[in-house]
Amino acid sequence: MKLTQKDKNPFIYSDSNKRYHTYDYYIKHKFGKKCAKIPLDCGFTCPNIDGKAGYGGCIYCSDRGSGDFALSSDVSVVRQLDETRKMMEHKWKDCGIIPYFQAHTNTYAPVSVLSEKYDQALKYPDTVGINIATRADCLPDDVCELLSQLAEKTVLTVELGLQTFHDETARYINRCHTTQDFINGYERLRSSSKKIGICIHIINGLPNENKEMMIQTSEFVASLAPEFVKIHSLHVIDGTLLGEIYKNGNLQMLTMEQYVDITVEQIERMPPETVIARVTGDGKQSDLLAPDWSVKKTCVINEIDKRMYTLDTYQGKKYKIIK
Predict the structure, then answer these.
(1) 51: which DSSP letter?
(2) Residue range 48-103, pLDDT digits in tens
(3) CB of 198 closer than 8 Å to CB of 190
(4) Rounded to whole angstroms, how far apart are CA atoms 177 and 169?
């Protein structure tokens, strides 16, 4: 009998042809059923928008702060969850709910405000976990204490936007924090509770970065051994500063082939236990300027799978434990 790609797969954290630790595999083994992640916008801002660290925000962010697929912040947490769940009811029957605080920086508010928002999500019917997206420089001690308390009540994942290991790139994109700032916040969060899962975001294709720099970012992330990693492709949204740079012809975009090549090499360097929660990203299609291929998420994922199979590689093959 001819062996299938699944039969030939050497990667242990997989029950399919996937040669990396997918989020679907994690969800199935963690909760034993399908789960739906629902994006939320609570009207928070960011320290690089309101002047605490800078102004204008990251040059690639829309005015929704990565919350383009969430409902309006004028709507309560419960109503956002209700309405989104109702819209997707045809495919979300009998599944767990993971409220995802996504738009802007979701620990950047007084603890009393944060606690109220998180509590509404925690009490929502069928909630099995909560994801909170934030920045590593927005994790003061009182917020870390609140998160550690929340982690005692549910499966909590805190998502930290690193984007790049390179401070010169971070300055260019107006990130307004350094790699050392990231390390400080990461370590503060890590020491606050062993029950908090940490997810680190990185972006491939940032201005002025070459393949070697992107690989260095992934190696830095791998050295931290987070529970989750999200790998995004840079996408250019109309109405952003990055959009103007692109329109003026001053931004070189990755091709899909280049993106696949880089992403596979990054996955090879990740610890096998780290869940690769995303291998590509897309912006709101009506506002997307580039790259066109980023909207074909299934195609990008399939190309990553094919390349890993062709190279006979898998997550962790090039992982180096740094002592």
Answers:
(1) S
(2) 999 999 999 999 987 654 545 557 667 899 999 999 988 887 777 789 999 999 99
(3) yes
(4) 11
For residue 229, pLDDT over 60 is answered with: yes
Q: Is residue 316 part of a domain?
A: no
Q: Tens digit of pLDDT for each residue in 269-280?
A: 999 999 999 999
Return the CATH number at 29: 3.20.20.70
Q: What is the pLDDT of residue 65?
A: 43
- Answer for the pair 130, 150: CB distance below 8 angstroms, yes or no: yes
User: pTM for the complete prediction?
Assistant: 0.95
157 vs 287: which has the higher pLDDT:
157
The interaxial angle of helices 141-151 and 111-122, nearest 10 deg, is 10
Q: Is residue 114 part of a domain?
A: yes
pLDDT-derived band at 219, boundaries 50, 70, 90: very high
DSSP E strand stretches across 93-196: 96-101, 129-134, 155-163
**Strand pairing class (288-290; 197-204):** unpaired
- Strand duo 35-40 + 96-101: pairing: parallel
Contact 175, 202 (CB under 8 A): no
Spatial contact of 148 and 159, defined as CB atoms under 8 Å apart:
no
Reference 303, options 265, 257, 240; nearest CA is: 257
More confident: 48 or 281? 48
Overall number of domains in the chain: 1
Burial (CB count <10 Å: 0-12, 13-18, 19+), residue 238: middle
In a domain, 322, yes or no: no
**Residue 218 belongs to some domain of the structure:** yes
| Close Cβ partners of 15 (under 8 Å, ≥ 6 residues apart) | 6, 25
